[in-house]
Amino acid sequence: MIESFIKHLRFEKRASSNTVLAYQNDLNQFATFLSTTFSLSEPENAEHPLIRAWLISLTESGLEPPSVNRKIACLRTFYKYLRRQEVIGKDPMMKIRVLKTKKRLPVFIKENDMVKVLDQISFDTSFNGCRDRMILELLYGTGIRLSELIGLEDSKIDLRNQTIRVLGKRNKERVVPVSSSLISIIEEYKSARNREVEKKEHGQFLVTSSGDTCSARLVQNIVKKYLAITNSEKKSPHVLRHTYATHLLNRGAEINAVKDLLGHTSLAATQVYTHNTMEKLKQAFDKAHPKA
Length: 292
Fold this sequence. Notes:
hpI Integrase, Chain A; 3-stranded antiparallel sheet; DNA recombination; 3 strands; mainly alpha; 292 residues
């Protein structure tokens, strides 16, 4: 039933490729545990005690609570699917509870460090240099996700109106404004691409020097390379998304506007960034208020 469930995620729910891969890996890991530990070959026959045993084994192996909770979410979705398909009569996840986790503030890069990265680094004048600079500027300048950048098509970029049309999670599309300075960088990248790279008919905006679509790993490596000059404990495309949101809020952007720009479905997902801005407000209070 795992294969049937994965097809359901991919073709009916139209989940992202990252979600599908993560669920597939989790379920295969769960199936291997059941087979080797309890000689049970069918995960749909697992009951509450066996599921709990797997989760305990994950915790004892040192897996962090957020990662265990993600696997719990996977199993909940899987067994709900089995119930709808009438494969099982009772949901074995009913008694399973998520683990308590510590709230972690999003990691972001300070404004002066972003200035160093974007304005003081001398990018190569070749196609690769133009592309690398454009990747950093676009991630920081729009807050789009890595998967959204990889999937961005040429036709979705409106240079005249200074917007990009992004296909986000659950295939929800949103329009994100782009600054005039970023438009210039995009035009410079496209000029270098058209001049130096063989055009291929995939329609993707971001390409390699051979004209193929860029992989997530390539973009991650590029971001990590240039963020190495910062003091950020994490150096990833998602850190630039956090940085985008935090800097907007720090400069007075309305939280509902930031929510829409990020493509969040609920305000709760955006409010995590207010913790960072609250720290800034507290510092201002401590410095300026007579009773601080």
